[in-house]
Amino acid sequence: MANASPLVNPVVKAMGEEPSFKIGDAVRISVRYPVGHYRVPTYVRGKRGTVTAIPYAGINNEDEGFGKNAGVKAYYYRLSILLTELWPGYTGGASDRLELEVFETWLEKI
Amino acid sequence: MEEHDHSHDHDHDHSPIESPGDVPPSYYEVMETSLRELLIEKQLIAPGEIRRQLEVLDSRTPALGAKVVARAWVDPEFRSRLLEDGRSACEDFGITFYDDTKLIVLENTDKVHNLIVCTLCSCYPRPVLGLPPDWYKAKPYRARAVKEPRAVLKEFGTQIPEDVEIRVSDSTSMVRYLVLPRRPEGTKDFTEEQLAGLVTRDAMIGVITIEPVN
Question: In terms of CB atoms within 10 Å, which end of chain A has fewer, N or C?
Answer without folding.
Answer: C
